[in-house]
Design brief:
about 475 residues; alpha/beta; TIM Barrel; eight-stranded parallel β-barrel; three-stranded mixed β-sheet
């Protein structure tokens, strides 16, 4: 296995120089050729394909794409390249790795394991509020208490930190970035203690390396059983912020969560090209972010406008690429998602159900939770959304892909024509959906959740 320090050297010193626009054009050219060569075809009527041969061809095509283009380091304008022998060796090492990793501590310790397609073992749920503008202090604590108190939750995704700290806005890499990151993880730990679950696994989503490093603290912050999320910039790009997160985590000894979003209509082309680059991005997670035996990955497909993961084509991109990875890579896979509708609306619940079903049925866990793609007010998230995503993923864990496809096509009829901002309901904030003192969901939201759940039960989905 190529060491990370060799990877860093290729990023800084020895990788071939290339302009970013040339790298992007190369992705488009090579992906377009490979889509045709390997017969990768998107059928809108089948958002959950059952074709194992398609998944396997997609995996090999993704490997070929990564061999051809590699990973682009934005800061140095160098390409990090690997030989086929180096990548194949890494895949062998990955398959030799233990079937799972331990997350969390004490009574909240869990075994996060590699799942297969149709695996009857229930997925774990590392859920949270994927919030871009939470309020600092007590409101932040109460919001995360609403998540941690749900028994379906096996870990907490949090971040980024509130945009203001001590009433002051902060910038990436600034002293206030450090302060905000340290405060945010402290508030999450406070929320866990308040509900009697201090050992729950944490997944940090600070946008800067400084933030993630500042949050690492065995007593008051991120422990070695917790994880740092590390993004891949679309498509197949990294920067020093991401590489510094890897470097620090290797010294500190915590887990890593590489994640990426393949953009439909972006540099890889349509849904087929996006699926291809999604698989290729997994090789970046293996080779550059060194995830083997040390973490778990999260993949997604995204529309450009509206920027959601719940459209028919985006569901296909993540589902088919996750099939390729669960069948061939040995990675621990999962995902979350961006919805068009805001929390507290029926459309949001249907979109979240689609996310849970299409991930759970093909060997995925729930990572990152979900949120409205474009937030319209602060604190726009609650514990009900990750709970519901986890429940639907667990219910879909062992159903066949054919049954999942039928179910997803039904769910899509509930919201598919209302994904644009002018049609999707904006939703509500935490204090509109929960009692802020008792942290209990209000009856109107719970009744809406019960209605959607009963309708899915009538379609044959069996909940715990």
């Amino acid at each position: 296995m190529v060491s990370f320090w060799e990877v860093a050297d290729r990023a800084i010193n020895t990788g071939p120089l290339m302009k970013m626009k040339d790298f992007d054009l190369k992705i488009f050219k090579v992906a377009s050729q490979l889509v045709k060569q390997y017969g990768v075809k998107y059928d809108p009527k089948v958002p959950i394909p059952s074709d194992d041969a398609l998944a396997d061809r997609l995996f090999e095509a993704g490997l070929k794409l990564y061999l051809e283009v590699g990973t682009y380091c934005i800061d140095t304008e160098r390409v990090i390249r690997f030989s086929e022998e180096e990548i194949r060796e890494a895949l062998v090492d990955l398959k030799r790795a233990p079937d799972g990793i331990d997350i969390g501590e004490g009574v909240e310790k869990r075994r996060l394991f590699k799942r297969d397609i149709g695996d009857p073992r229930k997925p774990l749920v590392i859920g949270g509020v994927v919030e871009s503008n939470p309020t600092e202090g007590r409101d932040f604590v109460q919001m995360y208490k609403s998540i941690a108190q749900e028994r379906v939750i096996d870990g907490i995704y949090y971040g980024p930190a509130p945009k203001s700290i001590e009433g002051r806005k902060w910038l990436l890499g600034s002293p206030l970035d450090c302060h905000a990151a340290k405060s945010a993880v402290g508030w999450v730990r406070e929320a866990l203690r308040a509900v009697g679950r201090p050992g729950l696994h944490l997944l940090d989503a600070c946008p800067s390396a400084l933030g993630s490093i500042s949050a690492c603290d065995e007593e008051k912050g991120l422990r070695k059983t917790d994880a740092i999320s590390i993004p891949t910039i679309s498509e197949l790009k990294v920067n020093f912020e991401s590489l510094n997160k890897v470097a620090y985590s290797l010294h500190y000894g915590c887990l890593r969560n590489p994640f990426w979003t393949a953009i439909i209509g972006g540099f890889a082309g349509g849904p087929e090209g996006a699926a291809l680059v999604s698989v290729a991005s997994a090789f970046n997670a293996i080779m550059v972010y060194q995830v083997a035996g040390s973490g778990y990955v999260c993949n997604a497909g995204l529309l450009q406008n509206p920027a959601v993961n719940t459209a028919r084509s985006t569901l296909w991109v993540r589902n088919v690429s996750m099939q390729a990875l669960t069948r061939n890579s040995g990675l621990i896979c999962g995902g979350g998602g961006l919805t068009a509708a805001g929390p507290g609306t029926e459309q949001s619940l249907w979109e979240i159900a689609a996310l849970g079903v299409h991930i759970g049925c093909v060997g995925g866990h729930i990572f990152h939770g979900n949120r409205k793609a474009v937030l319209v007010k602060p604190n726009q998230g609650t514990g009900m959304e990750p709970r519901w995503e986890g429940e639907t993923a667990r219910a879909a864990a062992s159903i066949s892909r054919q049954d999942a496809n039928e179910l997803i096509n039904f769910i899509l009829t509930k919201y598919e024509d209302h994904l644009t901002p002018d049609k999707a309901p904006p939703g509500y904030s935490f204090n509109e959906l929960y009692d802020q003192e008792t942290v209990r969901v209000k009856s109107g939201y719970f009744d809406l959740y019960s209605k959607v759940r009963k309708e899915l039960e009538a379609r044959g989905l069996k909940f715990d």
